[in-house]
Amino acid sequence: MKLRYLNLRIDCYHEQYYSDNMRFAYNFASNCRFIANYLSKAIRKYKIENSFGITMLSIRLTPDDNSIKIDRCDAVLEIFLHFTKEDLAKLLMLKNREERFEAYLELYERGYEYAKAEGFEIGQDILLSLHRDFRENNYKNEWIWKKKLFRELDLYVIFQCTFTSTDFTLSIEALNAKKNIVKLKDVLLRTYPDEICYEKDFRNIVIVDNQILITDFLDHPFLSISIGDLNNGVLSVDGYGHDLLHKYDKEIKLIEW
């Protein structure tokens, strides 16, 4: 088996120990989800084999002592890290985002170290190198989804995904063919920072009747963009009934610490 997924969250059996807010544990996990997403995508290219049959490393925060176990049904190595209310209070006091991101990375690193001490080799050295890359890239989780050149219109279109601690956005940038003049740059879609909120929405691009048609995982139309307007620096979007920018505003506000 190969390691493909990582996550960090509060252990579900101790949610009320940390907060009476029923959404707190979910919001906490969502706030650091962009790191899990970055590490999960980055680790896959290394194809790290393990002999104990796991595909996920799950680090759970608990008031109990450190412990570790394998959930063979779900192929998860579960690392329980001792984490008190006082530890949480200190973390929540970190208003500087980089300091908070460092705190999340340090929790992952504690988990790697504990797993190694317990005899579980999961590619710790590679994971730590990914942490260094993440830090050097200023804690950004961004990637290009699609690019399209319309040579006859002198138009080059880039779709970029940005996953942060508080949201996920799909943005569009329109340039000339030489890519030295920006005609337009705007956000198309904004969701809660969780893959389940966006991963099925956009999969493919089809050009139909002077429109860029973005389709979902079932090839149903998700949104369309006028190519002619885009070439003139104007964004004209048909969201086919979807609330593209404000559907998750209330939920996002809850995790903007």
What does this molecule look like?
The chain has helices at residues 15-18, 24-31, 33-44, 85-92, 97-117, 124-136, 227-231, 249-254, and strands at residues 5-10, 56-62, 67-71, 76-82, 141-150, 155-163, 168-175, 182-191, 204-208, 211-215, 221-226, 237-238. Helix 3 (33-44) crosses helix 6 (124-136) and helix 5 (97-117) packs antiparallel against helix 6 (124-136). The protein has a four-stranded mixed beta sheet with strand order 1-2-4-3. Strands 5-6-7-8 form a four-stranded antiparallel beta sheet. A four-stranded antiparallel beta sheet has the order 9-10-11-12. Strand 3 and strand 4 form a beta hairpin. The mean pLDDT is 95. With 257 residues, it is an alpha+beta fold. The chain starts with a strand and ends with a helix.
Supply the key terms.
four-stranded antiparallel β-sheet; alpha+beta; 31% strand; 8 helices; four-stranded mixed β-sheet
